[in-house]
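On to my pick:
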Amino acid sequence: MGEEEHFDCLIIGAGISGLDAAYHLQEHCKWASYAILERRANLGGTWDFFNYPGIRSDSDMYTFGFYWKAWQSTKPISPGKDILVYLREAAEEQGILENINFNTDIETAAWVSADNRWHLTTTTGSRYSCNVLFGCTGYYSYETPFEPSFPGQEAFSGKIVHPQKWTKEYDELVVGAKVAIIGSGATAVTILPSIADVTSHVTMVQRTPSYIAALPEMDPWANFVNDWLPQNIAMRINKWKAYLQGALFYQYCTRYPDAAIKEIKAGMFAEVSSVMDREEFDRHFTPPYNPWEQRLCLAPGGDFFRPIREGKATIVTGHIDHFTENGIQMKKGNHVEADLIISATGLTIQPNFPFSTIKVSINGEPYKASTHLIYNGIMISDVPNLAFIVGYTNASWTLKADIASMYFTKLLNYMRKNKITKVVPREDPEANVKHENFSGGLSSGYFTRSGDILPKQGDKFPWKGGVNYILDLVQMTFGGFSTDSLEFEMENKKIS
């Protein structure tokens, strides 16, 4: 093993969160040395990892993009390749790229109170240490997507692929093939229109429908603002217009679900009424939950509905009985013919959240996520000198990344000013905080399946939060730095 390399801060992950964290460190903690440790050979995280057809943002780019680098396209929902180019430009322009250590896979991370440092070891034996650690690896597992087994799937003569494992081989296999997509979430809604023109036919096999909103492919307002106003002003207007539009619609859906259901379904029916009667539409487009209890799927330009109107795609709603040699047998008796099956069945949450695959210990004791509480949606109880980013589920990911990064830099400056070497969120036993499963405010399967392994959230501030951008913005970035429920150590003396 070589000599241990020390930094004030280490950022784990060079996706959109890691780049945002690095920008804020450079901007607000110029005194701090830092590096980003990225296990892949490229930056971009999700946008470098996923290769399935049509991969795109599932929220508008005016709020998903960085506030410190303008998103200049008038496409609010944009392809993954465009996002990857944007992220690389951002890293190069801000000098972040030179601070990224690629192909650096952290195997272990150990907090040692004897020196109040994190000590990290890679799979190749390289060693790093830091005063504070910033986890920016997202929340889903790269290694293990959710792949439920179906009876008889070994009898299927074609190939079965999860979108998370998509390679160029499958780009070729879909051409001229009968393709069945299992699932009805954002991934399935994205893939279907992206392959419909090259396949023989596409069938989306769904157990339960999703709400799908057709949005304009281009934003004329953004185009007008970009043409007539200075870039920095146009960027702010586009961001706040997009955020407020989304936030108001979210509030409308959660406060007046019956009216929202009627409105969303009317929009969907208008897209397919030329090829479906009302009875068939209700069978395929009536989710058993209210809008925004799960994420709303977006279809720019109504692209999801076009292949259905053109007869290139169909929807089958019901339960799968078993796979056959040539497709999928449904419990209702109908058979879906397929040469290739895409199992768009969802994600799996990291079992060691927010540390991804890293084996973590605190003074020799193994970290077990489910025994800890999430503090302010940014830190973990009883875990020293750590912050992490997990984005909003009802708004763009990057809005929360901004808040977490600003909070983190405030914390670092506070610690430096007061000569503090250790900070730990501590739950007050007398506060009677009720522990609840962390769900991000959704009932989506990947959260409900992971309730027993994720850190918990509380039922009161500061152990509950991270789901309301405006509230978080006011509480965590404006004004002074709150030390509520934080325990500090300074020169071997504990303060709180």
